Amino acid sequence: MVQNNDRRTFLRLAGAGTLGAGLVALSACTGSRGTGGNGSGGGGSGQTRVRVAWWGGDVRHAKYNEIYDLYTSEHEGVTIEREYADYGGYFERLPTQFAGGNAPDVLHVTERQVADYAQHGQLADLEALAEQGHLDLSHFSAESLDAGRFDGTLVMLLVGATIPATMYNRRLFEEAGIDLPTVDWDWDTFYEACEGFRDALEDNQAGTTYQAIAGPPFETMLVQNGKSMFAPDASAELNFEAADAEEWFRYWREMLDEGLCQSAESASENQGAPFEDTMFAQANAAMHVQNSNQLVTFQTALGEDNPLGLAPFPQIGAEPAAFVIGSFVCVNEASQVKEDGASIIDFFVNDPRANEIFGLELGTPGNSNWEETVAGNLSEVDQQVLDFANEVAPISVYATPRPPGSGQSDTIMTEVGLAVAFGDLTPAEAGARLVDDLAAAIGAD
Question: Could you tell me the CA-to-CA distances from 57 to 20, 22, 64, 90, 156 in Å, in that order?
C-alpha cells in the first residue's frame, strides 16, 4: 500500500474536516481570449472559462478564492468559474457530473475517490501536460508523485498530506499527572493512560473518545501489520481478514467494559452533533484521533486554556507506522481547456504567493518550494503540525487509491463499531460483518 518516506521527503509531502457550504459557482473575469470547453465555452466575449471545483468550509473557500483571484488578475482572458460544497455534497455531485459529461475542468479529490474516474480514463496525464510546459513538477519528490499515480499514470497532484493523529489535551494530562504521549508509545501505554484518566476525571469525562467507529485508526493498525483496508492497486479486493477486524473491535470492547473510553451513547450522539459540541471539543476527553491538519480548528474551539498536542496513533501492530492520507488536484481528460487547467494548478502549487495564502490548509503540501516560502512565517499551531510531520517522517506510510464503492467504508465502519459498542455484535461477529459489508460495497468476489 505503501511508500515509506524519509524525514526530508515527508516534509515535502505531509493534512480534511469540512464546514457546511452549499454548492456555489462564482466567476472572476478579466479581459478575453480563446474559448473554453466541457460546458465552459467562451461565449461571445472570447473568454477562456475554466471550471474549478473543491470541497471545504468558509476558511478554505476564502483561501482558494484569494489564490484564484490572484491568478485571474495576472492572466487576462481567463475566467475561473468556481464550484464548491461541503465534503458530502461535493463527492455526491461529481459522479453525476462525469456521467453527464459536465464535470469540472479542474477538480480536487482524495485517494478515496480517484478510482471512480481514473479507471475510465476520465483524468488527464499530468506528466504529459508537464512535458508540454504547462505544469512544473520539478519541486515534487518521486514519492509525492507516486502517491498520485493510478495504474502508473500521474492523474492527481498532491496538494496536502495529513496524518490521522492522536490529538491530546495537555491540561488534562498535566492535571491527572499522566505522561504525555510520545512517538514510540504503544497500546499498553495508551491503555494505562486511560486507566489513569478513569480515576482522575469526572464521570462525564474520559481518557479517549471511542475510536472503533473510525476508519483511519483501524487502517493505521492494519498498516502497522503490513496490510491495508483495500488492495493497493485499487482492484476490488480487501487487504485484511476478519481476524484483523475482530482484534480491533476486541480492543475497544475491553475499553468500554473497563470504563476507559467514551460511552456508546455519547459516541452515537456525537455522530450527528455540531463539531463544537463533540466530546473532545468540549474538553471532556483527553484524547481523540483526528487529521493532524485539523489541530488549528480544535485549538480554536478549545481555547488557550486547553493547549493541544499531537502524537501518532499508538503502536498496535508489528511495526511502527503513521498512516498518511492526501488531498490532490486533477484535470478532466475531457476538458477542452486542459492546458489552462494545468496552468492554474501550476500557479496553485508553485507560486510563492499562493503557497503563503494556502499554508497548511490541507496539511503539508507536496512541493518543496512551499516549505521555503513559509519558513519562519507559520503560526504556532501550524508550526506544531509541521513539527509533528517531521517527527513521524521515518514511520510514515502513504495511502494508495481505493477501489470504486469504497466511499461507503466510513458509514460501514461507524455502523459496525456502534453495534459493538451497544452489544449488538460481538467482536468476532463485527469482524466478519465488516469484511462482508466492505466486500459487497466494492463488488469483491
Answer: 6, 10, 11, 12, 22
